[in-house]
Write a structure and sequence with these properties.
The protein is mainly α. Helices cover 69% and strands 1% of the residues. Strands 1-2 form a two-stranded antiparallel sheet. The radius of gyration is 24 Å and the shape is globular. The protein starts with a helix and ends in an 18-residue tail after the last helix. The relative contact order is 0.18.
Length: 581
């Protein structure tokens, strides 16, 4: 069968499976819709958490970013994996014991304020919408290439699939669908890595193949360093990004992870606090499988791209090149009219005035969207069509699983936190469930529209969402658990300051969002992807200072805060658990 037939077959089967699982596990109550009934097995919850966590940024974009950034791309690997450890060990068990299954619900109860709850709702919507935009772009990329439809149509197809199983199944349907999606995405990620590892270095284990030796006896990384330097790029294993910016981006990704609402809610789908800890451990193992494979895929893809394309006759290039050209995410411009593709760093003046001028090159002729590298990787390596189609299915599984979790956060923020807890406290369970489904419907339409014109690569867009989460939620959650003196005034002031500062900085230095800044004007060289760390620090400072000017929280709130940190104590608030509302 040809590639398109394989794609229709494998993607169609996986989509049918997702929808079938959603129908089988249809939510019949708000408890099913919000927390899957609270009875998911820790292993299944670990898989669902991993799928929820490993978005299109992890599957499609991360290895692509690393393949171009080299050593500097390690900030994404360290930030996202380290952040999950921070969340699992520092925050999740305490939030699970508190018994509130949404971040706005926790903040509203802990800070005894409807104003704090509304601020948290706004922050949750802001973070979740930013995050889901990246997923929709990932869906659009996969569909536009392999189903040969425009990017906009690809996004619409993804929107339709998510709409069906998110609206129908709620958290219960999403959870069991994500278990299936994890199996699909991890298999799809590993198969081409194993194939290419065998072809390049003769090792089927990608993590070992990353440090392996090519058939000519040259170590893979040495060869990749040489290829990069021969084209005017920095050595693949060297870092050129300012260390301060790398630190701030890594910290923003880590701290943002610990404040992501759609990941935190996963710890409420298991029966007990102990199960939450166990499922976190399983999730970390499942996540590590992909994240330890990503550097190898990045190195394999970069090596194959350069050797396949650079200084080769355009008319003799493989079909994959022209196929990706049609999507507009790979472009070639023959600047010197020699019929060959010259791919090099034309920003490197020394290289341009030396090697490039000697060869008669007039400028870089190839522009590659980094988000296509993982999807194009098996095509570049000339793997079988079924492997290429499998990678497409895996990328879609990663994007759709996270999109569904984010859309559920948006719907619960509106139906549970805004309506039931604020505007319409007397709403029936049936009415609340209806409101949640309507909220998802509107959210998925808006997210699809924004996904057509995202403000950057998938991983960059997701990094912005993590920065917003770090600057708004992380301090409020940490102080709410570990600082009894923190009151509502301090928490509100901190959240507003953090997210406002971070949002303005991102907007100003992201031309795609209408901003006016340039990279030369960055504060201390900190990029928009890392500014969430600064926003988080401001949030902590403002929250603590403001809290000292107002009375401490009521005694029962302080006792509740004390109780959630010690297993032997029971919280006075536990009788108001979200599960009994």
């Amino acid at each position: 069968m040809d590639l398109q037939a394989w794609t229709f077959l494998i993607v169609g089967l996986t989509f049918a499976l997702y929808i079938g699982v959603a129908i089988w596990s249809k939510a019949g109550s708000t408890r099913d819709f919000y927390v899957a009934g609270g009875g998911v097995h820790p292993i299944a919850n670990g898989m669902a958490t991993a799928a929820d966590w490993m978005s299109a940024a992890s599957f499609i974009s991360m290895a692509g970013m690393v393949s171009f950034m080299g050593f500097d791309g390690a900030q994404y690997l360290m930030g996202w994996t380290g952040g999950y450890v921070l969340l699992a060990l520092l925050l999740a068990p305490y939030l699970r014991k508190f018994g509130k299954f949404t971040v706005p619900d926790f903040i509203g109860e802990r800070y005894y304020s409807q104003t704090a709850r509304v601020v948290a709702i706004i922050c949750a919507l802001f973070v979740s919408f930013t995050y889901v935009v990246g997923q929709m772009k990932g869906v659009g990329i996969a569909f536009s290439r392999f189903l040969e439809v425009p990017l906009e149509i690809g996004v619409l197809i993804g929107v339709g699939i998510v709409f069906i199983y998110a609206v129908l199944g709620g958290m219960k349907g999403i959870t069991y669908t994500q278990v299936v999606q994890y199996c699909v995405l991890i298999f799809a990620y590993l198969v081409p890595a194993i194939f290419i590892g065998l072809m390049l270095v003769g090792n089927p284990i990608p993590q070992l193949g990353f440090g392996g030796t090519l058939q000519d006896g040259t170590p893979l990384l040495d060869k990749l360093n040489l290829l990069n330097q021969d084209l005017g790029f920095s050595a693949y294993t060297s870092g050129v990004k300012p260390k301060l910016d790398v630190f701030f981006i890594t910290a923003s990704l880590m701290l943002g992870t610990a404040g992501l609402p759609h990941v935190i809610v996963r710890f409420f789908t298991v029966p007990k606090v102990k199960d939450a800890r166990i499922s976190a451990g399983y999730a970390l193992i499942f996540i590590a499988i992909l994240y330890t494979t990503a550097p190898a895929i990045a190195a394999f893809a970069r090596t194959n791209l350069i050797e396949t394309v650079n200084d080769k006759e355009y008319d003799n290039l493989p079909n994959w090149f022209s196929n990706w050209e049609k999507t507009g995410m790979l472009t070639y411009d023959d600047l010197n009219s020699d019929g060959k593709v010259q791919y090099y760093n034309d920003k490197n003046e020394e290289f341009v005035n030396g090697v490039a001028s000697e060869k008669g090159w007039k400028g870089n002729e190839l522009v590659v969207d980094r988000d296509i590298m993982v999807l194009a990787n098996p095509e570049i390596a000339n793997l079988p069509n079924w492997v290429i189609a499998l990678v497409v299915a895996g990328g879609l599984a990663a994007a759709l699983s996270t999109a569904a979790g984010l859309l559920l956060v948006i719907s619960t923020s509106i139906s549970h936190d805004l309506l039931k807890k604020n505007l319409m406290p007397g709403i029936s369970e049936k009415g609340e469930l209806r409101a949640a489904r309507i909220a998802i419907a509107f959210a998925v339409i808006i997210a699809g529209w924004a996904g057509v014109n995202p403000p950057g690569f998938v991983a960059e867009v997701v990094a912005l969402a993590f920065g917003l989460a770090a600057s708004s939620f992380f301090p409020a959650i940490v102080l709410g658990i570990f600082y009894k003196r923190m009151n509502k005034e301090g928490a509100i002031a901190g959240m507003v300051t953090g997210i406002f500062f971070t949002s303005i900085y991102i907007w100003y230095f992201k031309p795609q969002l209408g901003g006016y800044g340039t990279t030369e004007g960055l504060w201390w060289g900190i990029s928009p992807e890392g500014i969430g760390t600064v926003g988080m620090i401001l949030n902590f400072i403002i929250a603590i200072i403001v809290s000292r000017f107002f009375p401490p929280p009521p005694l029962e709130v302080q006792e509740m805060t004390e109780s959630i940190r010690y297993p032997g104590l029971s919280s006075k608030k536990q009788k108001y658990s979200a599960f009994e509302e």
